Amino acid sequence: MRNGLILGALAAVVITQAGCGTQVKSVALQPSVQQPAAGSGVALYFGSQTHPAVQQQLGEASVSARVARAQDGADASCDKALEQALDKLRAAAQEKKANAVINVQTRFHSAETSSSTNFTCGVSPSAAAVAVHGDLAVLQSN
């Protein structure tokens, strides 16, 4: 009887925890994320995307964001997490007087993307998260 209760309790825990893991996704970048945010003047260049000549390197910046998962789906939640992370990245660039962040990479834990078309995001039933890294730079203006 006692063994049956223990096995039943263990089975209940396993069933409730099934499917609760975080999924690492590759999500398409929206074209709007690369444009300077209103008032920031900081452009973003993902991966090896071409950009104007670098006048000055100002170091690196790494930021992350985690948002509650909304009802509109995993990709939309990842987009919101990326938007928040990029806002933080732009703020770090402004603080150092940079007008761009180049070589932008995204990651979730050890899964990293250096792409100009996709980004990496971790999404669970409750949240979405992304980390962003890039080189702060002053680019020549045209």
Oligomer: single chain
Shape: elongated
Question: What is the helix content?
Answer: 25-40%
| CATH topology title | Translation Initiation Factor IF3
- SS-derived structural category: alpha+beta
Order of helices and strands: HEEEHEEEE
Biggest sheet details:
7 strands, mixed
Can you tell me the CATH architecture?
A: 2-Layer Sandwich
CATH superfamily: Hypothetical protein apc22750. Chain B
* Mean of all residue-level pLDDT scores: 86
* Rg, Cα atoms, Å: 20 Å
Integer tally of domains:
1
Could you name the ranges where pLDDT drops below 50 across 5 or more consecutive residues?
9-19
Architecture overview:
The protein is elongated, with a radius of gyration of 20 Å. The protein has two helices and seven strands, in the order αβββαββββ. Strand 4 and strand 5 (111-113) form a beta hairpin. It has a single domain, classed as Translation Initiation Factor IF3, CATH 3.30.110.70. The chain has helices at 2-17, 74-95, and strands at residues 23-28, 43-46, 54-68, 100-108, 111-113, 118-123, 127-139. The protein has 142 residues and is α+β, with helices and mostly antiparallel strands.
What labels would you give this structure?
elongated; Translation Initiation Factor IF3; 7 strands; alpha+beta; 142 residues
Topology, please?
Elements: H1 2-17, E1 23-28, E2 43-46, E3 54-68, H2 74-95, E4 100-108, E5 111-113, E6 118-123, E7 127-139
Parallel strand pairs: 2-4
Antiparallel strand pairs: 1-6, 3-7, 4-5, 4-7, 6-7
